[in-house]
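[recover] target loaded
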């Protein structure tokens, strides 16, 4: 579904990404993992059309999308969900959600997707008339994921969905992400939480200094001694049953 080949980009004259190759198959969850400053968010910006591609290609559903404006990429079905702090605090929960459908004109479809978002996140339904400024951190993360779903994406890109959240809330959100995948939406999840992301995903990439350092099936990466020692603190918690429910 998504194929990135030899992608190079950066900011001004500063190169950040150095020949990135990455794929997200249809109906799968792929994890892009690494710490701060490794190039994860830069890649998402390039995929979303917010950064120019210096070299390489981005194909989505077999069509090149590098060089297209962001709204055209969203209409094609590729939607980025930024970190939870990027809600609009002066707008209600429902206003935030409806804003996610800004590229759409199918009123019936928008109404159906709003109901679906409330099914995934019942707390948003309870708080639909509240200002988003009144929500907890976990509820704001649910809100921005729901807003992304309102664009009717074929592939959803999630930027640090576990950031600054309590472990119990992370488990809840990751379980919902897996439900979204089961509905047929492909997912690229960008995370610093290597352990949790590998338990969620089918395939993973670890990025460092703008290059892909390690890639492979998530289950194999979890059991790889080098990955365990370097990125997982030597252990992996057995929480996959809760995530993949």
């Amino acid at each position: 579904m998504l194929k990135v080949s030899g992608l190079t980009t950066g900011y001004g004259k500063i190169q950040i990404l150095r020949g990135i190759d990455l794929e997200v198959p249809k109906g799968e969850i792929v994890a892009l993992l690494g710490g701060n400053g490794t190039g994860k968010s830069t890649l998402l910006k390039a995929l979303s059309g917010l950064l120019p591609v210096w070299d390489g290609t981005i194909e989505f559903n077999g069509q090149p999308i590098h060089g297209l404006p962001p709204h055209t990429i969203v209409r094609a079905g590729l939607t980025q969900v930024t970190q939870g702090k990027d809600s609009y605090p002066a707008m209600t929960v429902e206003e935030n959600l409806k804003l996610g459908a800004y590229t759409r004109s199918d009123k019936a479809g928008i109404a159906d997707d709003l109901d679906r978002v409330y099914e995934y996140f019942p707390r948003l339904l309870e708080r639909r008339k509240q200002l988003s400024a009144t929500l907890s951190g976990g509820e704001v993360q649910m809100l921005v994921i729901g807003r992304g779903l309102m664009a009717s994406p074929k592939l959803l890109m999630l930027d640090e969905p576990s950031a600054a959240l309590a472990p119990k809330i992370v488990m809840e959100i990751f379980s919902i992400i897996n439900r979204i995948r089961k509905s047929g939406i492909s997912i690229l999840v960008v995370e610093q939480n290597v352990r949790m992301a590998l338990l969620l995903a089918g395939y993973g990439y670890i990025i460092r200094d703008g290059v892909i350092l390690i890639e492979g099936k998530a289950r194999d990466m979890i059991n790889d001694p080098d990955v365990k020692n370097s990125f997982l603190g030597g252990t992996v918690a057995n929480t996959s049953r809760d995530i993949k429910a």
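[recover] notes: The mean pLDDT is 92.
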